[in-house]
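Data availability (excerpt). The following record was deposited with the supplementary files.
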Amino acid sequence: MRYVVAVAEMNSFTRAAERCLVVQSALSHQIARLEKELGARLFERTSRRVRLTPAGAAFLPAARQCLDAAERAAAEVAGAVGQIRGRLAVGVISSVAAVDIPGALRAFHQRYPDVRISLRVSASELLVEQVRDGGLDVAFLGLPTTARPEGVAACALARDRLVAVVAPDHPLAAEPVVDLLRLSREVFVDLPAKTAGRVQSDQAFAAAGLDRDVAFEVTNAQFLARLVEQGLGIALLPSAYAAQLTGVRTIEVTDAPARVEYAIWSRTGRTPAAGAFLALLEIPAVPGPERPPVDVS
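Predicted structure:
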């Protein structure tokens, strides 16, 4: 199964053999034996390319799941005898501020060097799905104060108010405070519609009976800030994250919306690596009574 996954990902028997540290003839022989056992060819081989057959495409997801399960089983055994191994898949939103993710991963890697770490940046609602489905072990995300992560274990980390972010030469740059009414006259750069990061702002303007013009939609908060810096529009971003930006000005908003940052993980079970990572961050792996998040605004 490992050889099949390698060939599918590398599109080459030669490169797959190099990655698996075996000679090509041995890899080809093992895949041929598997094809004979299954009664179907998994790959179409030509002199120019290798690609999955329909049978191979059907086999690949199950093969990956089996390999993941085998890896997790080995990690569970290691964890039972006090060893932390396996993988740690972490998800974050691009504007995470409650946790120093690079610093935390550095400390974790130094303490548990046998754990392979992957980091995925995505939208909050997608991170919840991926943790719920088992694709991620732990994730850090932000939601409006009117919402909570569903179907996962969660710990509220911080509550933060949004601030206006403008270019240095914007007419509002010298203002110490503004309100949503004044901001509604501006052109906005924001996250895509219906994402958690966008909803909190949309709800605030709607509650105030105001419309606004979102001319640019960006999936990454860092790139969003770069568009603001170029004067393409203004934005609303969490104050703790905005404080890390350069090349822009931030302005307090009197009636600004707020968000809560959460750490989330699976309700049905966590890997030893995930438990060790939560412990490193002093996040209770079994959440107790709801505790108020730290206000960092």
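Summary of structural features: DSSP finds eleven helices and 13 strands in the chain.
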